[in-house]
Every structure is written in structure tokens, then in C-alpha cells.
Inverse folding.
């Protein structure tokens, strides 16, 4: 009986450990946003990616566990995904307006909005396949999850930043 109680207690602690770590980890995008304020070039902006996830991991003793890293990386990935979706919509609106102007003057220029849509549709499976390859490097080990999330975060951030630069600086 005593052995069963020990096993149940040990299993409960093992299962609860990651849940407790996730509940106490603190994610905020502020470190990444603050870093981006001073960045003027794409490489400088890319250097800011992961800043918030790292701060999140450092916020708790379980931050650098597989569960902690997964949580923090996933939170920053969600931040970049929302940012990418927002800028994509803005670029699409602008490109559709340019397409309309070009059609009005009888131009045969390729459609910017269609090219944007096709580019994004092609980029998504490329990103996913690239990150699947990163995961495969871990040979099925537990590091594969955080590696995949990190890859997705960096790739999504880069795509968002490229579109943000296009939106603010045009297609020069």
C-alpha cells in the first residue's frame, strides 16, 4: 500500500510539474517590442526576435524545461503570427488599390494583390517544411518541439518584418 501511495505521489508531482511551470511563466511581448523600437534595418529587427520568449523562459525556474520553452516560444510565435496577419491585410488593401489604379489606366502590369496572395500561399508550406526538417534533426527527442516552435517563430517574424518594411517603404 505504501509503495502505491509513493507511485501515485510521484506521478502526480511529475504530471503537475509542467502544469505549474506553465501557470507561473510570464510572457509579455514588451521586450521584443522595445527592441524593435530602436531597430532600423531588417538584420537589426531580426536580432529582436526571441527577446520576449527568452525573457519568459528566464522568468521561472522551469523556463528552460521542454514545457517552459515550448510555452514561451509558442507565445512569441502567436505574437508574430498576429503581427504577420495584420500587416498582410494592410499590404493586401494597398496592393488592391494599386491594382485598381493600374486597371483604370489600362495597364497590363501583373496584379500586386494576386502576387502577394500566391507568395504567401507558397511561403506557408515552405516555412512548415523547413521547420519539420529542424524537428527531424532531434531524432524524435523532446527538443524537437521547442526547435520547431523556435523555427516557426523566427520564420514568421521574418516574414512579418519583410512585409512591414514593404508597407512602410514601398517596392523600391
Amino acid at each position: 500500500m505504501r509503495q502505491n501511495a509513493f507511485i501515485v505521489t510521484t506521478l502526480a508531482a511529475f504530471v503537475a510539474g509542467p502544469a505549474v511551470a506553465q501557470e507561473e511563466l510570464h510572457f509579455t511581448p514588451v521586450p521584443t517590442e522595445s527592441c524593435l523600437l530602436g531597430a532600423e534595418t531588417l538584420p537589426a529587427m531580426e536580432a529582436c526576435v526571441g527577446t520576449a520568449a527568452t525573457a519568459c523562459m528566464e522568468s521561472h525556474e522551469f523556463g528552460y524545461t521542454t514545457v517552459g520553452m515550448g510555452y514561451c516560444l509558442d507565445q512569441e510565435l502567436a505574437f508574430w503570427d498576429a503581427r504577420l496577419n495584420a500587416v498582410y491585410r494592410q499590404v493586401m488593401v494597398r496592393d488592391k488599390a494599386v491594382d485598381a489604379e493600374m486597371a483604370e489606366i489600362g495597364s497590363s502590369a501583373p496584379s500586386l494583390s494576386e502576387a502577394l496572395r500566391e507568395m504567401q500561399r507558397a511561403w506557408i508550406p515552405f516555412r512548415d517544411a523547413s521547420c519539420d526538417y529542424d524537428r527531424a534533426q532531434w531524432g524524435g527527442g523532446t527538443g524537437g518541439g521547442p526547435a520547431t516552435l523556435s523555427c516557426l517563430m523566427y520564420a514568421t517574424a521574418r516574414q512579418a518584418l519583410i512585409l512591414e518594411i514593404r508597407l512602410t517603404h514601398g517596392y523600391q
About this structure: The longest helix spans residues 66-104. The two ends are 75 Å apart (CA to CA).
